[in-house]
Amino acid sequence: MTLFGKFIAYFLLVLFGLAMVIPFVWMMTTAVRSQIEFNKGNVGFIPIDNFTLYVDGDQETIISIVQTVGDSSYVHFFNELGEIERAYAKIPNDKIEERREFRIHWSNFINAWNRVPFARYFFNTILVALCTVFGILITSSLAAYAFARMRFKGNNLLFSFFISMMMVPQPIYLIPSYVLLNYLGWIDTYYALIVPWLAHIFTIFLLRQHFKAIPQELFDAAEIDGCSRFGILWRIVLPISKPILVTSSIFAFITSWNSFMWPLVMINSEELRVLQVGLSYFSQESSTLTTLLMAASTFSIMPLVILFLIAQRQIIGSYATAGLKEG
Asked: DSSP labels for 267-303?
């Protein structure tokens, strides 16, 4: 590649990278801004407050001047959420001050957390995600081993059918699934959130690609020593597949954590809401409090961000491995 070509490639990479990162940064900076400043239209990245204060001794209250009449002014008093506490109060002008300062409003996170039962939402989400990950590892390991190492009629055809199911969008099978779960009496229960997701096609695909890359000599030696098929899977294949199993667990955990449409349809009671659904209801109830919405969004995705930062090397490496091995 020529120097000009490299320049264009890096320029586009930086451009698209910024396009993806900037909304995330804006969300985090808005989460620590003042709601009053946001309502004024100050939507930049730096949390600087420009406000008018009513100073009475040690007490300082944010106000908005409505009208000045002689030595006094009619003002609105605001709380920290930008809501009017007192309207058209008359105060002397000598107690009004203009200020501009850098201020981080950590209280937005506390206020957002206390507005709806986020603790319950986190508990439900973690419970569902852990159960789902555990089930996926079991079912996917067995299925992937069969597809990768067992010879039976229709192996490739059945695997192609599995892979084709990844192309079916969720809204297509959402209503039939609801009818089935309603027939079983699982609507509005943990069963509806966990059981249908105990098998994950992409994880089966990922593990199959890895299992096919394991040298055949290991399987031959195990069979000579009298090891059964399940013994080969349990004692040989899974122990040397820990990195791909960890990566699969992370993918499954992220998928379950971000699930929205399925729990929205299958769950009615507030006690069983998962985080994404709870966040949606919270955005409807507090649609005018943008800073609280951004604070709630920030602490909702923060566990996933930390998880990705810890395991990013394995995630990227597994994607590359899955694409290079024999299909």
From this structure: --SGGG--HHHHHHHHHHHTTT-HHHHHHHHHHHHHH
- For the segment 185-211, what is each residue's pLDDT rounded down to a tens digit? 999 999 999 999 998 888 898 888 888
Q: 318 falls in which pLDDT band (50, 70, 90)?
A: low
Q: What is the 3-state secondary structure (H, E, C) of 112-164?
A: HHHHCCHHHHHHHHHHHHHHHHHHHHHHHHHHHHHHHHCCCCCHHHHHHHHHH
Burial class (CB within 10 angstroms; exposed 0-12, middle 13-18, buried 19+) of 117: middle
For the entire predicted model, the pTM comes to 0.79
Cα dihedral 129, 131, 132, 137 sign: positive
- Lookup: tokens for 270: 């507030």
Count of other CB atoms within 10 angstroms of residue 124: 22
First to last CA, the chain: 30
| Contact (CB, 8 A) for 130 and 113 | no
Helices (H) and strands (E) in the chain, counts: 14, 5
In whole angstroms, give the CA distance from residue 127 to residue 263: 14
Count of Cβ atoms closer than 10 Å to residue 263 Cβ? 21
Q: Which two tokens stand for residue 99?
A: 């200020």
Confidence of residue 124 (pLDDT cuts 50, 70, 90): very high
What's the token pair of residue 312?
């990013």
- The rounded distance, in Å, linking the Cα atoms of 269 and 250 is 28
Strand 96-102 vs strand 59-69: parallel, antiparallel, or unpaired? Answer: unpaired
Burial of 3 (0-12, 13-18, 19+ CB in 10 A): exposed
2: its two tokens:
């020529």
Q: Which residue has the tokens 């966990």?
A: 194
